[in-house]
Amino acid sequence: MATGKAAVFYAVGKPFELRDVPIPEVEPDAILVKVSLANICGSDLHFWRGDAPLKISDDGWIYGHEMMGTVAKLGAKVKTDSLGRALREGDRIAYSYFVACGRCPSCLDNRPAACPNKIGRPLGPSTFPHFHGAFAEYYYLRPGGHVFKVPDELTDEMVSPVNCALSQVLFGLHQAGLRFGGSIVIQGAGGLGVQAAAVAKDMGAATIIVVDQVPERLALAKQFGADHTINLKEIPERKDRVALVRTLTGGFGADIACDFVGFPQVIPEGIEMLGPGGTYLEIGTISRGAKIELEPAQLVWGAKRIVGVIMYDPWVIPRALDFLVRNRTRFAFDRLISTKYPLEKINDAFAASEWYGRDAGAITRAALVP
Ligand SMILES: [Zn+2]
Ligand SMILES: [Zn+2]
Q1: CA torsion sign, 96 to 49 to 354 to 59?
Q2: Does residue 153 share a domain with residue 16?
Q3: Domain housing 300
Q4: Are residues 153 and 169 in the same domain?
Q5: Is residue 100 located within the same domain as residue 221?
Q6: Distance of CA 100 from the midpoint of ligand 2 (Å)
Q7: Do 155 and 172 belong to one domain?
Q8: Is 316 inside a domain boundary?
Q9: Residue 290 — very low, low, confident or very high, per pLDDT cuts 50/70/90?
């Protein structure tokens, strides 16, 4: 039986183990993908670190989701991508890593991103289709998964963040209602934050303010379209930062503020930075159980709303690819992936991506090359 390598995660604190995993028969509506680049996303670090606990069986878990690849084998019925363009083996593709169930109130309401059944439980190498995640030589795109051919103008490095970070921020800003000429505060200048700055610019935002504490990351945000940056270390008092945002937004506060930090403590400050009628976009905090103190009257008197976004609707991926084509020389996309590791070095790659390493400004995204 033909096999491919996969990194299997067994438990928090234990290293990934490389295993030979059987290459599955491809169902008529599925696609076997040869993974070209698999990035380590912030949520992968949460699972690895154990602050987003999950029940993993003895079989382990093959995970990772931010990736791109080429078609290794098409299912017998797959002739085109999700836009009806001819698809062949060897084509470079971007694809979603979750499939909405099509049989729940959210799906029926045409809100696939909100489908509660779109993410399955953690699966290991013994369970069909064996290749469940990005940290492996192959990925099995299940029937119903959306797939899009990648334009020739884009490098693999530009495309690998598309199916998570980029699509997430694009859909998030759409859901939050960012408008032409609007103002936005972006909390956190990691992979998602800097791309949010670029997307906001492309959507016509007039004032883009990025908050972080690492000078290198703030400098990167500038290269991605930030008009102003706020360094937490230089302005340590919350009230001073809120006042600065007011000044930079004509005295009103921002139309939109968003959490791309992943530590919920930043949320009340972001809500305070909003102007009347503003929207807070929550994406960063995925750890269940994490809590904040919130003064609801702030929402009522400020007519503010909070929008939570997990994943995105399928139309987002091709628009994210178009965004990259038209902005590929405008923003520093080549700087998003700072280090590449072979799959065998996955434990080193995770260690290097760990929060504190990131805080030192060393790494924006580490990528594995399976
Ligand atoms: Zn991700
Ligand atoms: Zn559903």
Answers
A1: negative
A2: yes
A3: 165-308
A4: no
A5: no
A6: 5
A7: no
A8: no
A9: confident
If you measure from the C-alpha of residue 176 to the centroid of ligand 2, how many angstroms do you get, rounded to a whole number? 22
Distance (angstroms) between ligand 1 centre and the Cα of 277 equals 29
Q: How far is CA 180 from the centre of its chain?
A: 24
Q: What is the pLDDT of residues 266-288, one digit of tens each?
A: 999 999 999 999 999 999 888 78
Q: With pLDDT > 70 as the criterion, what percentage of the chain qualifies?
A: 97
Same domain membership, residue 34 and residue 9: yes
Ligand 2 center from residue 283 Cα (angstroms): 20
Separation of CA 110 and ligand 2 centre (Å):
9
- Distance from chain centroid for Cα 323: 16
Question: How many other CB atoms are found less than 10 A from the CB of residue 165?
Answer: 26
255 CA to middle of ligand 2, Å?
31
Q: Give domain status of residue 96, yes or no.
A: yes
Distance 154 CA to ligand 1 centre (A): 20
Q: Which two tokens stand for residue 348?
A: 């080193």
The rounded distance, in Å, linking the Cα atoms of 367 and 44 is 12
| Judgement on whether residues 181 and 140 belong to the same structural domain of the protein | no
Distance 5 CA to ligand 1 centre (A): 22
Measured in Å, residue 63 CA sits from the centre of ligand 1 at 11
Please say which residue of 308, 323, 357 terminates a domain: 308
The domain total for the chain is: 2
Pair (179, 125) in one structural domain: no
Please tell me the distance between residue 103's alpha carbon and the centre of ligand 2 in angstroms.
5
CA of 252 to the centre of ligand 1 (A): 33
Q: How far is the CA of 112 from the centre of ligand 2 (A)?
A: 6
Q: 113 CA distance to ligand 2 centroid (A)? A: 9
- Neighbouring C-beta atoms of residue 51, cutoff 10 Å: 16
CA distance to 13, 16, 40, per residue, from 66 (Å): 22, 18, 7
| d(C-alpha 18, C-alpha 16), whole Å | 7
Predicted local distance difference test score (pLDDT) of residue 241:
98
287, 308, 329 - which closes a domain:
308
Whole-number Å distance between alpha carbons of 294 and 224: 31
Give me the mean pLDDT over the 311-315 stretch: 94
Cα 131 to averaged position of ligand 2 atoms, centre (Å) = 22
CA 64 – ligand 1 centroid, Å: 8
Residue 356 above 70 pLDDT? no
18-44 pLDDT, tens digit per residue, is: 999 999 999 999 999 999 999 998 889
**The CATH number of the domain where 105 resides is what?**
3.90.180.10
pTM (2 d.p.): 0.93
Compute, in angstroms, the gap from residue 118 CA to the centroid of ligand 2.
Answer: 7
